Amino acid sequence: MNSIFHRISVRRFEDRPVEKTEAILRAAMQAPSAANQQPWEFYVVTDKKKILELSRTNPNARAAANAPAVIVPVYRKNCYLPDFAEIDLSIATENLWLETDAQGLRGVWIGIAPWEDRMRTVERVLDIPEHLRAFALFPYGYPAETRAQQNRFDESRIHYVE
Q: Measuring CA to CA, which residue among 98, 61, 92 is closest to residue 74?
């Protein structure tokens, strides 16, 4: 659980390849999902040319340009409870991020869904089949920057109903 209190968004990476991708994806796929539908699939992009294309898909994606790898979580449109697919992918992506931290790597979650134009652009870049929807970009690698995580605990946001 230390990763919850350690994880930060990192947008600059060392220029070296990453290992441990399977461990990260295993953690992502351990996420709970509505009715256990597990609507996820993952594209792991290490091709520099494709990563550069992904970094140009929207203004927030620039951080992907210098990453050695980008994971693109996608979901199946025809899953059992499609209205919950993006929630399921959020949980899986959080697991992915926490395991990335646990493995000594860092990353940043770049949201794509629910913006149709951004989703379609990423789907075109990676030639993602029509039955899948792009959910996010997750550039990751060995961090070229470090800082402490900020404390976000705010007791005023807690409401007890007794």
A: 92
